[in-house]
Each structure stands twice: as structure tokens, then as C-alpha cells.
Amino acid sequence: METLSPATTTWAIDPTHSEILFKIRHLMVSNVTGNFSAFEGTVETTGDDFENAVVRFSADIASISTNMEQRDAHLKSADFFDAENHPKLTFVSTSMKKVDDDTYEVTGDLSIRGVTKSVKLKAEYGGQMVDFYGNTKAGFEITGKINRKEFGLSWDAVTEAGGVVVSDEVRLILNVQVARQ
């Protein structure tokens, strides 16, 4: 007798209940927080089990915001993301391993500005719930760090006093709710 394998389930990011944030040190004394307001992504699972899921994500560079128009324009320019020639950043997972009941290690290829590097992220699973409309939702807080210069975001400046204006390390914080399709 042939056993049927569990079906593939697709989950889509719910943008109204998700946020894509980053933090970077400014003048090495405080953090500036930014976000992307236009993004999309899917998670493909076997049944409802997120271990070994395949994650695909993209964000529109033009949607970057740090609450300062001049800085945002600079980030979109060729000094940083070069949004005109590289309008999206993308992530495709290569593995998603369960560490414990509510933690996963997600490894994947992050592409920014035409450069692709493997990154490891920590995903804290918040659980599943059925919403008011009968939709099954799952939540994750995903964190990690990247070096911006490895992706060609190499603009640098030094203050007159010799201080670094922006750090190389960028912290990623994604609060994501996905809906079973």
C-alpha cells in the first residue's frame, strides 16, 4: 500500500500585520531605524510543519524609509542601494532547521544590489491562530546581522573629529505574519 506524502502548503506574508526593519549605528553613539513598506513573500511547508520550509522574500528598495527624506534619497542612490538599477532586494532560503520548539535557523541567499551572499537568520516562532475570518495565521520574529559593505553598500564618511558616520554592521528585525493560502 502506497503512503501519501503530506501536501505542500503555501503561506503568504500578510503585509498589514508585518514589518521589515533594520537598524544601523549612526556616529557610533545611537541607532537609526529604517523599514521597507512594500514587500512580499511566501513560505512553502510540508503540511503545517515549518521545518525544511522554503522561504522566498523581496522588498522594493524605493519603499525604504528612515523618517528623513534626504537620507532616504541618499540610501536609494548609487552610493547605497542603487534603486534605479537594483529595484529589489531578495532572499531565498536554502535551509530552515528547527532548533527547539519555537526557534528555527534559517539559512539562505540574500541579494542586494546584484550581490548574493549566504546569511543565517534566527526565526522565533510565535505560533498559529485562526483569525476572525477563518484564516490560519502563523507569526515569526526574524533577526540577524549583515555587513553592508559585503553587498556593495560601501559609502563611507568620517566626521571632522574622525568619527565613523555609519557602521558596517546592519541589524535585521522582521516581524512577519503569514496566512495559509
Topology summary:
Blueprint (H helix, E strand, L loop, with lengths): L7 E6 L5 E8 L3 E7 L2 E8 L2 E12 L3 E2 L3 H8 L11 E13 L2 E10 L2 E16 L5 E12 L18 E15 L1
Antiparallel strand pairs: 1-4, 1-11, 2-3, 2-11, 3-6, 4-5, 5-7, 7-8, 8-9, 9-10, 10-11
Describe this structure in words.
The chain has 181 residues and is mostly beta strands. The chain has a single domain, classed as Lipocalin, CATH 2.40.128.110. The protein is 4% helix and 60% strand. It is built from one helix and eleven strands. The protein has an eight-stranded antiparallel beta barrel with strand order 1-4-5-7-8-9-10-11. Strand 4 and strand 5 form a beta hairpin. The two termini are 30 Å apart. The mean pLDDT is 91.
Distance between the termini: 30 Å
Can you tell me the CATH superfamily? Lipid/polyisoprenoid-binding, YceI-like
State Rg: 18 Å
Question: For this structure, what is the CATH class?
Answer: Mainly Beta
User: What is the overall silhouette?
Assistant: elongated
Q: In percent, how much strand structure appears in the residues?
A: over 45%
Q: Any idea of the CATH topology?
A: Lipocalin
Number of helices: 1
Number of strands: 11
| The number of domains | 1
For the sheet with most strands, the description reads: 8 strands, antiparallel, barrel
- Low-pLDDT runs of 5+ residues are none
Structural class, by secondary structure, is mainly beta
Biggest sheet: strands side by side, in what order? 1-4-5-7-8-9-10-11
Helix content: under 10%
- Could you tell me the mean pLDDT? 91
Q: At CATH's second level, what is the architecture?
A: Beta Barrel
Order of helices and strands: EEEEEEHEEEEE
